[in-house]
Structures are given as C-alpha cells and as structure tokens.
C-alpha cells in the first residue's frame, strides 16, 4: 500500500509560451505522505503561489505531472477540474460567506447536507460548536480561520492547501492556532501543504519543509535536518539567518573579514568560496583600534542584534543585552570558541 498523498514529478511552469522566457517553476519534485503537513517556504516571488494554483487545478502545468492519492490530476495534456479534486483550500483572508452562519458555512460544500456527523465533529475540534448561529462578522480573526479550516475539511477532504493562513492574525492568536493545526489535521486523517514566507512558522509545526527560491526547491527535509545540514547557502541564510562571508584561499587556510579560517585536512585541497555562520557565534567588543563600525542595533528581549560594517561586509551579531554599544562605535569581531560554521560549496560543517 502506497503511503503518498501527493506526488509532484518534474513539474515546470511558465505563463507565456516563449522558449527564451524563464521558468516560474523549474524541476519541482516532492512527495507528501498521508497524514503529513509540508511547509512550502520561500521569499515573495519564488513561485509558492503558482505551485499552489497548479495543485488546486487553476493552471495547466507546462511540463510534468501531479498525482493525488494515486490518481493523476494534472499534466500538460489533461487536467482534473478543481471541484473534482477533493482538495480543501484555506486562504489568508478567510474567504467565508458573510451571509451564512458558522454552521451554514461548514455545511455549504456537502453533497448530503442532512448528514451532519462530520460537521459536528469538526466544529467541536476547532472549538466553534458553541458559535454555530453566529455570522463571520461576529467572530474574531482566529475563529474565522478555524471556521475556514473546518469548511475546507467538511466534505470529507483528506488534503488541504493553506495559503499563508496565519499572516493576518495577531501574534497571540497566531501562536495558538498554528500549534493546533497539526492536531486538527491528524484528527481528520488529512494531509496538507502550507505556504508561508516565515521560517519560524514552517519549522515550528510542519513535518517537513521545502525551501524555494527563484522557482526551484533547494532542499526538502525535516526541520531538524534543515538546521543541522543546510545544503545550500540560501537555505543556511534564509532558515538559520546566518551571515554569508566570502573566503579567499591563503595557502592551507582561508582569509575572511573575521580573520583566518582554518578547515579540516580533507578540505585543504577543496575550493571553498563562502562561510555561513550564525550571529550568535560571533562576539563583539568595543575597540577604538579596529575598523569595524556598528551601524544599527535591535533589542530583541533576551539579547541584542547589532549590524556591523567590516571590510565591505555587513554582519549581524547577537550578544548579551548588557554588551551595550552605540551606532557609530568602533568594535572588534571574532568567532566564539565551541561554535561551528558551514563552508560552501559542499555544506561542510566545521567545529571550532
């Protein structure tokens, strides 16, 4: 018995037919297992929404195919219409029917509206069983999004697409609702794909995360593996928030704006070009004799983030809130002991 809910195979897409134009989606391959929530993560304009539209059936793919529950639903030659795919959609702006009550919104997509067993179950799961007679304008933002999720799952849907579902919610409601989403899906034996541009959101609740840039998937992995083994410079920068520093080979070592970088014996004959290092692994001290200059400061509760200009680079440095410097102060930077960084190409992890 196959365990894949959704399979995307060699998917390409562009909106015009010109040979010379760039692909909006290029060689997309991914699988979502039954019961799995996959996060589709990337910056604005990377192709996330286009991929969502192709899965939903709003566009013909230029190349490749999409299968759902062992049934091909999209290819260049044929496409199953959206209403026949049994895919639920949850939008960032809820898209609820304002003239229908909570109960009527959830029932809307059911063929047999007399059988309310699944509707009652879903309303209970999302915590709206006491609000069945209310209209959308009488609900809070979190309640509206819970209603949108219940409506998407009500027709017996076992796969849903979520397009930035928490972006319009305030922080407290967002944190609460996103922690509930995996349990809601598991309670309905449903799988899902959630589009987001927020790494914290994807990493906190998704079983796996696909990281996209410029129409390509750079890496699909579990959140822990993405943190421990980012395959590309973009993944380490976008997911971990790391500084990317150019390296220049100098004999058996490499020079950087943070000084000399040593590497393992087996890497000495490798052509390393960049280092990726976390802001928390760089120390900062005031020093009138150095050329590094503080250009900005952010207070983030338990620590400070400084942006420092050094030898043509702008680095982010995380430090204790008691290590106070001002914009314009000269400082010195160094790599902390008992830390690590990644070297590219190759994604080599080097410990200090």
TrEMBL record:
EC numbers: 7.6.2.9
Topology class, membrane: Peripheral membrane protein
Residue ranges annotated for the ABC transporter domain, each copy included: 6-239
GO molecular function list: ABC-type ferric iron transporter activity; ABC-type quaternary ammonium compound transporting activity; ATP binding; ATP hydrolysis activity
Pfam families hit by this protein: ABC_tran
GO cellular component: a single term: plasma membrane
Listed Gene3D superfamilies: P-loop containing nucleotide triphosphate hydrolases (3.40.50.300)
Enzyme category, top tier: translocase
Database matches in PROSITE patterns: ABC_TRANSPORTER_1, ABC_TRANSPORTER_2
SMART domains registered for this protein in UniProt: AAA
Compartment(s) of residence: Cell inner membrane
Keywords for this protein: ATP-binding, Cell membrane, Hydrolase, Ion transport, Iron, Iron transport, Membrane, Nucleotide-binding, Transport
The protein's name in its UniProt record: ABC-type quaternary amine transporter
